[in-house]
Amino acid sequence: MFADVIVDIQHEKLDKIFQYRIPESMEGRVEPGMGVIVPFGKGNRKIRGYVTGISEKCDYDLSKVKDIIEIPERAVEIEAKLVSLAAWMKSNYGGTMIQALKTVLPIKHKENAKVKKKLRLLLDEETGKRQLHYYQEKNQKARARLMEALLDDPVLEYDLVTKKLNITMPVIRALEEQGVLRVETEQIFRNPVRQTVRQEKKIVYTPEQQHVISRFREDYMRGIRQTYLIHGVTGSGKTEVYMEMIRTVVDQGRQAIVLIPEIALTYQTVMRFYRRFGDRVSVMNSRLSAGERYDQMMRAKSGQIDVMIGPRSALFTPFPNLGLIVIDEEHDTAYKSEQTPRYHARETAVQRAKTEDASVVLGSATPSMEAMYRARQGEYVLLEMRNRSRMQQMAEVYIADMREELKNGNRSILSGRLRELMEDRLEKGEQIMLFLNRRGYSGFISCRECGHVIKCPHCDVSLSVHRDGKMRCHYCGYEQPKVTVCPECGSHYIGEFRAGTQQIEDLVRKIFPQAGVLRMDMDTTRQKDAHEKILSAFANEEADVLVGTQMIVKGHDFPNVTLVGVLAADMSLYTGDYRSGERTFQLLTQAEGRAGRGDRPGEAVIQTYDPSHYAIRTAAEQDYEAFYEEEIRYRELMGYPPVENLLAVLVSGADEALLEKGCHYLREYILRVIRGITSRENAAGVQNSREAGCPAVQVIGPASPGIDKIKDIYRKVIYIKAEQYGLLAGIKDKIEQYIEINSGFDRMRVQFDFNPM
Ligand code: ADP
Ligand code: ZN
Ligand code: ZN
């Protein structure tokens, strides 16, 4: 047996993996993620490496392959845990081990020259002088030179230190580890705590908050580690609860990771954590350079911080003693990676927590179907918070039936009700948000008279209009010509649903010339900081109306907003995929949550052509349970996740004919693999859990992934549906082997996406 070993895990060029022989004495004991000692280089220097994989065959000249020397006793360091997490990700999500390692390990990149780093002396003058003396005595010249410079000037440019003083990285790192200095960058370490006095607002927890906190604490202190799902309405005080849980864990000498979708990672949120945990908190965001991110990771590793807040990638913070992972807004689609390995942060967090004896806390006002399904199955502990923490009322929600509006002669984008309420608010000087949920919009055809939507007869998702004028199903490839007459009611008012934020802005300006209007969408936020500028202008009440896409409904508190209008709730309902109902419910609930955050009660108007659709009805009634029941029934019926699992095999290539052929062969191969599995199961007497006649594994497609061509690369997708995740992972392994040995696939790219979002 042979082991793949990486020896330099912090190097940008991680691609170098070496093979070593596993000596007989160690057979069966070597596993991915394990630390090993191996001989390296010409002199066979003994170094530490990590096993990334095991194989039976050796890819190199056998006579040159060296043996692993030993497995060190203490093989549980943080790197080993992350390497084994990478191995888990590779096998669960596909891709190569290198890709997985690059995702989880903090990798040192060549420093971006634009980033200004500084060194700051942390000692007072007297202690500093003593330290200088010590270095001089020990004849540590570089350290002494740096110390001298720092005593002259306690803040030094990093570049000056490395280039002019000729001090190397390890020296700086050593002094940093001794607590002598700190490497700062303008962004990360600008510590807001200093500017504002650190005052903790004393709050009295509501009974609901107290219950959740106690439950967690009691479990934690008794050594029980679990995954908790907090289902708490917006404003129920979830963030306060997270902070109290983190306190529990930090008091035990352990660390916590808090994942927040980047768009909701606002200054206010970050400040709340700073006020609570001071400079033991670090924040990661996508604006940090690779080098800065690496520094943050190293600070976490060396124990300088207790809490890391950040988006998805912060999940891999190398804390030595991780105790808790919090995932706020757990349902957010940003938690799914769009690059191989296409991991989901929720599942990966649960896996990481399992290997590091940590707990996971998921929180949302609208839990994902996945999380609630698992909670109902008893995998997660469900904790409910049904009331807003400061006694505010939930918004009053009205549905405006746009079919009725049309019947009554109103062809405008604004319903009568919304228009009336807008007038009222403008008069009172209160603010209004108008929201158009274009997310994932893919050109469905609907009837404005009766609300009928053209769907795929096989997959129960809406058909999408393509440029060639045909309507297609994005799952199975079914197609039909575009209709011009409604098959339900015969109306000619049928067509593609069109409305943009720009149009709405123009309309509002025309109807309400006295109103100040701001718009926030892709077009107006292209420039850096445009986002913040618009939001802060609106917060400062420089405008009465904010028109925008889903960007405006996430995580922003505008106390003067008392009216929210959702202009076309249907838009997100027919995006041609099985999650559209769930996404619509989430967006509508979030939008409703924006109304009435201050002292005045709020109202929301949802405009729709299909008021009886369960996602719209239950969102208007603010009834999550009712939504969940309906939605899970649909998923069960159609065999969609989370009830069953779905693997999307994405195939792409520049040669369209080759792609067609490749997909054909791939499909045939997949069917062969499935037949193999099924006949083996039959032979073993395994009962097929689904109805007789229904195959346990289904192959659908090849179909269009929505966009057929990007930058001259053609794309296709094949779906495989199965009850068991493990079965799909096994099929994925087989496909990876198949494409490896069939040279035609050299000119195509095959990627895997489990339970795609
Ligand atoms: P969520 O994360 O559930 O939306 P937050 O934790 O952000 O809720 O709480 C909403 C607001 O209510 C915040 O300003 C928070 O400080 C405040 N808050 C939370 N819990 C309490 C409490 N028990 N007493 C008073 N104010 C609270
Ligand atoms: Zn109709
Ligand atoms: Zn279909």
Describe this structure in words.
With 757 residues, this protein is α/β, with parallel strands linked by helices. It has 6 domains: 2-104, GIY-YIG endonuclease; 114-188, no CATH class; 207-385, Rossmann fold (3-Layer(aba) Sandwich), CATH 3.40.50.300; 396-441 and 498-637, Rossmann fold, CATH 3.40.50; 444-496, no CATH class; 645-754, Alpha-Beta Plaits, CATH 3.30.70. A 7-stranded parallel beta sheet has the order 10-11-9-12-13-8-14, with helices on both faces. It has a 6-stranded parallel beta sheet with strand order 15-25-24-16-23-22, sandwiched between helices. A hairpin with a 4-residue loop joins β3 and β4. It is globular. Mean pLDDT is 86; it is low at 187-197 and 686-694. The site of adenosine-5'-diphosphate has 15 residues, from α9.
Number of helices: 22
CATH topology of the largest domain: Rossmann fold
Based on helices, strands and strand pairing, what is the structural class?
Answer: alpha/beta
Instruction: State which percent range the strand residues make up.
Output: 15-25%
- Quick one: how many beta strands? 30
Q: In CATH, what is the homologous superfamily of the largest domain?
A: P-loop containing nucleotide triphosphate hydrolases
What portion of residues is helical? 25-40%
Round the mean pLDDT to the nearest integer and report it: 86
Count of distinct structural domains: 6
Strand order of the largest sheet: 10-11-9-12-13-8-14
Largest sheet: 7 strands, parallel
